Amino acid sequence: MTGQIIGGAPIMDAVKYQQIIMFMISASSALSVLTTICVCIFICIDGSHRLRTERITNAKPWIFAKKDDLISGIRNSLLCCVVV
Are 46 and 53 in contact (CB under 8 A)? Predict the structure, then answer.
């Protein structure tokens, strides 16, 4: 808003843009929270509305495990190139 006012835009336009940006930030936060809650309920609650504690683990999420595998593969291939 300050940048628009300094740039010479009318104050009402700057206020409208600021309101739109604040609405978009709060809407995206609310949407992400609701999505996270729905995913957690879908995973942790079964069809009989019981909490499934065996589905809650301390293991690394699969995406981080794949990233670690990729990095170790790259590291091993670079070491092979250096050793040869």
Answer: no
Cα–Cα distance, 70 to 29 (Å, whole number): 32
Output the six-digit token pair for 55: 């589905």
Return the H-helix or E-strand segment holding 57: none
pLDDT digits (tens, 9 = 90+) for 13-28: 888 989 999 999 999 9
Specify whether the CB–CB gap between 5 and 14 falls below 8 A: yes
What's the burial of 31, exposed, middle or buried (CB within 10 Å: 0-12/13-18/19+)? exposed
- Give counts: helices (H), strands (E), the chain: 3, 0
Domain count, the chain: 1
DSSP state, residue 49: S
Instruction: Supply the range of the domain harboring residue 41.
Output: 2-83
